[in-house]
Design a protein that fits this description.
Structural class: alpha+beta
Number of helices: 5
Largest sheet: 2 strands, antiparallel
Shape: globular
CATH class: Alpha Beta
CATH topology: Alpha-Beta Plaits
Strand content: 15-25%
Order of helices and strands: EHEEHEEHEEHHE
Number of strands: 8
Number of domains: 1
Strand order of the largest sheet: 1-8
Helix content: 10-25%
Radius of gyration: 15 Å
Length: about 130
């Protein structure tokens, strides 16, 4: 982990399950409103009527430790991915303890906290997401 790792913090008590975080993430990253492409996943339990948890990159750095080319690296407490160095071996996705590092079209994709200004946090009306 970096000296001062930055990560999203989720408070399920404040979350309404509106999924705006998922929509803004997919749009920012892929220019489509598609929650399946979001790097933040909200898990809603319809039987009890509440959000149970969120899945997202915790910036732990496990992916960077297994990357054979140094394509994943930590800068300012955030694990970043340099595609020019990536060989698409996907060892990073296998090493991710939260399952948040996704493989989309054969390429690893991970949250980079929107380069320091995470839009999921900015657009969460209830403040259920914040950055540590």
């Amino acid at each position: 982990m970096g000296l001062q790792s930055r990560s999203l913090i989720f408070n399920p008590e404040l979350c309404t399950g509106c999924a705006i975080c998922e929509l803004i993430c997919s749009f920012t990253r892929f220019k489509v409103f598609n929650p399946r492409l979001s790097l933040v996943r909200i898990e809603y339990n319809y039987e009890v009527g509440k959000v149970e948890r969120a899945t997202f990159c915790t910036q732990c750095g496990e992916c960077s430790r297994v990357c054979p080319t140094g394509a994943l690296y930590i800068a300012n407490g955030v694990t970043l991915l340099d595609y020019s160095k990536c060989i698409f071996c996907l060892a990073c996705a296998e090493a991710c303890p939260t399952g948040a590092l996704k493989v989309i079209d054969g390429r690893p994709v991970k949250c980079d906290l929107c380069w320091g200004n995470p839009l999921c946090v900015r657009y969460c009306a209830r403040g259920a997401l914040r950055v540590s």
